Amino acid sequence: MIRLVSIDDHRLFYEGLKALLDKADDMLLVNSYDNGLKISNVLLCDRPDIVLLDIHLPVKSGISIAREIKSFAPEVKIIMLSLEVNYAFAHDLKAIGVEAYVSKEIDAEGLLKLIREVWKGEVYDFYTHTAPIADKVHILSEEFSLTDREIEVYEYIKRGFTNQYIADVMNRSVLTIMTHRKNIKQKLRIVQGNKLPFDDIL
Fold first, then answer.
1. Residues 84-139: pLDDT tens digits?
2. Model confidence over 64-77: pLDDT tens digits?
3. Domain Response regulatory spans what residues (predicted)?
4. How far apart are CA 48 and CA 40, in angstroms?
5. From residue 44, how far is each of 33, 40, 94, 112, 198 by CA, in Å?
6. Using the 8-state DSSP alphabet, how is residue 140 labeled?
7. Which domain range does residue 49 map to?
8. Strand order in the sheet with 100-103
9. Which residues contact 90 (CB under 8 A, 6 or more apart)?
10. Which long-range contacts (CB under 8 A, 24 or more apart) does 158-167 make?
11. In 10 A of CB 103, how many CB atoms?
């Protein structure tokens, strides 16, 4: 049996997930949580093979929780779920060691197939689902000379995250994020306050 734990603050998503996994004879949803504040206790008590983890959670981000899981129990596999899949998150999650990252819009059979593949240790291509973004990233890196790290920060800024939040999820200091923000503005020649242009690029 594949032992699973869900960390997600959307009740309807959890109920749908439970109904799906109850029909799978090789999977067991051991427990569910709406945050990852006591993740060490979760890992010790529930002993999951795979954690299904929402990327946006209250108090502590899913990325921070993923980093903590991999530090505390690297053998536990993580499938990160999000309403929106993007390059910045994929880049960070792959670096942390997360096994897979998919949209919550994935269909039932697709999710079951992914769980089985991750459990077996099959390699997941992080950029398959972010392929449409590749050309846009190329524009930012080639035409505007943004580094990979600056592109990540740009993604977070564009989605309205604060410097502190970005620093937390990227495991950097707030000062470092502020420096990246300044460099991005200079490279993109921003003249209207904090508003980033080129919304059609990303």
1. 777 667 778 888 999 999 888 788 888 999 999 999 998 776 655 544 444 556 66
2. 899 999 999 999 99
3. 3-119
4. 12
5. 14, 6, 24, 25, 46
6. I
7. 2-120
8. 27-33, 2-7, 50-54, 77-82, 100-103
9. 101, 126, 127, 129, 130
10. 158/196, 158/199, 158/202, 165/61
11. 12
Q: Which of 67, 98, 120 is the last residue of a domain?
A: 120
CATH number at residue 109: 3.40.50.2300
Residue type for 32, please?
S
Check whether residue 109 and residue 27 sit in a common domain. yes
Question: CA 25, CA 62: separation in Å to the nearest integer?
Answer: 28
CA 146 – CA 135 distance, rounded (Å): 14
Say if residue 178 is in the same domain as residue 116.
no
Spell out a b/e string for 36-66, using b for 16 or more CB atoms within 10 Å of the CB, else e: beebeebbeebebbbbbbbbbbeeebbbbbb
What are 30-42's pLDDT values in tens digits?
Answer: 999 988 888 888 8
- Identify the bridge partners of residue 27 per DSSP, sorted by sequence position: 2
* Full-model pTM: 0.67
Q: Do the domain assignments include residue 192?
A: no
**Which residues lie across from 114 on neighbouring strands?**
none
In a domain, 168, yes or no: yes
pLDDT of 143 > 90? The answer is: no
For the chain, what percentages of helix, strand and coil (3-state, to nearest 5) are there? 50, 15, 35
